[in-house]
Design goal:
By secondary structure, the chain is an alpha/beta fold. The chain is 32% helix and 32% strand. It has helices spanning 11-28, 40-49, 67-77, 96-99, 113-127, 176-183, 225-236; strands at 2-7, 32-37, 55-59, 84-89, 105-108, 133-138, 141-146, 150-156, 159-164, 170-173, 188-192, 195-198, 202-205, 209-212, 217-219. It is globular and about 55 Å long.
Amino acid sequence: MYRIGICDDDYLFCGQIEKYLEEYAQQEEIEIQSEVFFSGEDYLKYMKEESAFDILFLDIELQQINGIIVGQMIRAEKANEVTQIIYISSKENYAMQLFQNRPMDFLVKPIKKEDIEKIMCKYRQLFSEGRMFFEYHFGKSSYGININQIMFFQCSGKKVRIVISGKEEEEFYGKMSDVEKQLKGSGFLTVHKSYIINLNYVSEFHVKEVVMTNGTIVPISQPLRKKVRQRVLQINKLGRY
């Protein structure tokens, strides 16, 4: 089952999104449970008491507490990197304000049924269809880590270090090229010959480096800077830096 939140002060719009989700669920023969919130305050109150949504469709231009602040609360106060935020707006001129909240996508009103279908397909591809675990070997044992919990990989000599959110680090003997192949299409990005990062854990993006949510500064090698910049813009669809 997929748990989806919709936070928008437009009653008709919320109903439309719910309708599109219901039609998608019937079409794909899956179960979707949705909750609607008409203000940022209502959602934040719910967030303190209930478990996280898989996806949150979040309007930017909410009254009082807007969608950008709500996103900051989700990521910073709750340390929630699980909920995938889909920002919604009637305007297109948002960029760096949203990047720090690490949204999965950005949609401009009016929203079509096809937009919702693409979001659901993208989410299922990234998080629900066989790409949930990174597998590695250490000694004679095999291990698996949920990729949503991995912040980044760092190579040092013949060892690869795995930095995991909220857990102790792991390491194994391997090559970054093999790590990159296994992570293809899973939201990870090679920024340096020694680093592969999870874009969901980037708090700041700069030309020469990225800052991860745990404060680690990861360098971007000069040959990869253009590629990294293009990839970040493509994934988030947030305009130009």
